[in-house]
Structure formats: structure tokens, C-alpha cells
Design goal:
Elements: H1 3-25, H2 33-56, H3 61-90, H4 96-118, H5 125-154, H6 160-185, H7 190-215, H8 225-228
Amino acid sequence: MPSQFTYMLILGVALEVCFLVCSIFRGALLRYFFLNLYVILSLFADLVRQYVLHYYGFTSPDYIFVYYYSDLLLTLSLFVAVISLASRVFEELHFARFVRWVAVLLLLGTAGFSYAVIAQSSQRLYTTFAYELSQNLYFVGLVITYILWGAVLKLRETRTRVVQMVLALGVYFSAYAGSYALINLGSKHEVVLVQYLGPILGCFLPVSWMLTILRHNEDSRLTPARLVAVPR
């Protein structure tokens, strides 16, 4: 196992702890509960992965099982976090309940589609389903995030924290969806992406959200249109 991989895991754990501490002291723990829940689950997933990795090795069936199912758990929690931000954006239009129902239907539809894709496979069905569902949820999350960003611009959402958290999710989902696409191109990419890109992306959200919470309070406002304005 490369030492860089261990260092990235340790760095990710440290950043997740820093984000949670900042979130508590800045009064954002309950206000952004599902974002904090994702980071807490990510912290525990990193610790469990490190434990299994130490005792069983990177290529062991035990680590593969733990990795893909912990990744599925994190994907589900991040999906819920995106929906929670969407509910905030649409709450003034009283569409929050509608957004949640649509999210449930999307989740069930994605799970059903993923199972149908791998139903004919007889080899490691449990890990294949976790991988397929995570991959599909990342693409669904990517689409939802871009739709949410369009809604932010259309509805002139000005809450700085909400806007920057949505932007961070857009970058994160885009990068992960791209990594899954690269893995599907050939198995030679899988080890590199899991070893290096995964931990790097795992550090991105805690850092971006921590900077957002530290630099801006809940009353901070901005104009999203300025972010896409092109100087003439």
C-alpha cells in the first residue's frame, strides 16, 4: 500500500474533524444537519476503511466490500444533503415537500434500475450492486445539483452559504461522475482512482464547506449572477 494513500486518509480525517468543530462553533451543526451528517459518516467510513486496510490489505475481498458499501452509504447521505439544500432554495415557493417526494421517487427508481442492470450477474452481486447504485446516484446527484444551481440563479438566491455549498457539490459530483466514467473505460484506471482521486475528493467538501462557514455567517448575501457574468 502506498504511503501517500495513508497520508491522504489521515488528512481527510483531520479536515473532517476541523469542519465539524467549525460547524459547532459557528452554529451550523443543526442548521445544515444533513451536510454535517454526511461528514460524520465520512469520518467513520475513513476510520473503518483504515482499520480493514491495515489488517486485510488493499486488494482483499474484505476491503473491497467495506469500501464499496461505505461509499454507497456516503453517496446516499450526500444525496439527502443535496435534497436538503434544494428544500432550502425552494422553501419560499412552498415546494419543499414536493422536492422531497421527487427525491424519494428518484432514489427508488435509481435503485431499481441499478438492480435490473446487475440482476443477470452471478459474480459478487453484492459489491456489483453497491458499485452500480453509487455510480448511478452520482450521475443523478450531478443532474440535480446543476438543476439546483439553475434554480439558484433563476430565483435569485442570495444566501452566500447556500450558494457556495451548492457550487462545491457541483464540482464534487462532476469530478466523481468523471472518475466513474474513467473506471468504466478499463480496469487499469480503477486502482489509481481509488487510491488517489477518491481521498483527494474526500478532502474537497470538508475544506470548501469549512471555508464557507468560517468566512460567511448566515446573514451574508451575494448576487449569484455575478459568478457567471462575462466581462465585456
